[in-house]
Amino acid sequence: MPTLLKDQYYNYDSVNQLALNLQAVDPTFPTTDFINDVMNETWEELALKARMRQITLTLGKYLPPDYEKALHMIDQLLANYPTGFSDFSLMYFPDFVEVYGQAEEHWDLSIAGLERYTPFSTAEFAVRPFIIQHEKRMMDHMAVWAKHDNEHVRRLASEGCRPRLPWGQALTSFKNDPTPVLGILEQLKADPSLYVRKSVANNLNDISKDHPDLVVKTAQNWYGNNPRTDWIVKHGCRTLLKKSNHDVLGIFGFSDADCLEVTDFALDTDVVNDGQDLNFSFQVGAKKTTKVRLEYGVDYVKANATRNRKIFQIAETTLQAGEKKFFTKKRSFARVSTRKHYPGTHSITLIMNGVEQGTLDFDVLSES
């Protein structure tokens, strides 16, 4: 069984190392008491972020009560790490700023702290309460971060204001009106760092779930001017592509489906046992030279006997006039923690340039 993330990042060794690092800054630091308080009787049951927060709260108990002095001690600790060091587990330092630094008198110290700490471990979660409390003030500062020399700080400008950041507090205001977010993304749309560009694309994809027309317009304005921006647009429109949005398909040249013809679509079996694989194949031809986006949808049976479609990409290619290509694909029905397979009639549908091109049914049986 794979090691859980919470045990990988937050365990005795990592907590002990944190205590030793604090003792290196302050020789009087009570390492044993700190470790015992962090890893108390609740520790084993805590999830990943809950363990991080427990470390944060224990830091609040043992670091100096004066907020500025506490940050100074964290700074001294981080100064001992090598240049370029970054580790997800150190996220309790930005979290310390979130928990203890939201008062108005701490604002400047806290924002400067988030900027310093995000290269060591992202502050994308910690910055969100500051946005919620002081939206314009914080977004003005994030616009400054978007011009920072450090890619981690520039990424924070984008990742921190994602309306639907996974594991993060939702930014309802930006789900309703993402205009302030787009202002940040505009500054970063041709960033030299792939790390930053991935964040911009993910942010754009978030926005597309609530404001598809706005993202279509943005994509149309951005696409075709810079290869870095083009990558962002393509990755940021992935949800709209899966939804076969006609305008987005057109941006990337996948608008023509009438000239495509699918033949020999077949499954290797019409009955699959839970835990097995299903193989299918088909041939696609073009009457004229055409860019083709090939996808398939699986209509999974849910626990309540209704069906829910998931879209999977097969390939993007160009077919010459009269050319035919044969494809084979495997869909796994192995048991995984993220999806339970229920018995019943499922189906696979081929999708070419956003248009359905054939459906075949098959049955999934429960493993006896």
Provide structural commentary.
InterPro entries: ARM-type_fold, DNA_alkylation. It comes from Candidatus Enterococcus ferrettii. This is DNA alkylation repair protein. By secondary structure, the chain is an alpha+beta fold. It has two domains: 5-251, Serine Threonine Protein Phosphatase 5, Tetratricopeptide repeat (Alpha Horseshoe), CATH 1.25.40.290; 260-365, Sandwich (Immunoglobulin-like). The chain contains 17 helices and eight strands. It has helices spanning 5-9, 12-25, 31-38, 48-62, 67-78, 92-100, 107-117, 128-133, 135-145, 151-159, 172-176, 179-188, 194-208, 212-222, 227-236, 238-242, 246-251, and strands at 260-267, 271-273, 277-286, 290-301, 307-319, 324-332, 344-352, 355-365. The strands form two sheets. Strands 2-8-7-4-5 form a five-stranded mixed sheet, with no helix packed on it. A hairpin with a 2-residue loop joins strand 7 and strand 8 (355-365). Helix 4 (48-62) packs across helix 6 and helix 9 (135-145) packs parallel to helix 12. The protein is globular and about 75 Å long. It starts with a helix and ends with a strand.
